[in-house]
Write a structure and sequence with these properties.
mainly alpha, single chain, elongated, 91% helix
């Protein structure tokens, strides 16, 4: 039974868990982060406009906002860097074969 199922299971594993599938997953994550980038820019612009109009915030609130904003930016960009690294590794691997 295993001999009959083995090719199917190996094909499925390659397609869903192999290096190519992981690279595609990372690329999809990077594209999602890029799609969210305009919202991030709009939100930052809106906040800057509010501050420009005279909104007064406690310095601790400003520091907390900046920290949260930086944390969010880093979490959104890591898939892009991971995809670039995976793509570079794939190209190096393909060049060697």
């Amino acid at each position: 039974m295993w001999e009959l199922a083995r090719p199917l299971i190996e094909d499925w594993m390659r397609e869903h868990r192999g290096p190519e599938a992981r690279v595609l997953d990372e690329i999809e994550g990077a594209l999602k982060a890029l799609r969210q980038l305009p919202d991030l820019v709009r939100g930052t612009k809106r906040t800057a406009e509010l501050l420009e109009k005279g909104l007064r915030l406690d310095p601790e609130t400003i520091a907390a906002f900046a920290q949260s904003h930086n944390r969010q930016r880093r979490s959104e960009l890591w898939p892009l860097w991971a995809a670039v690294a995976a793509l570079a590794a794939t190209l190096v691997w393909l060049a060697g074969h």
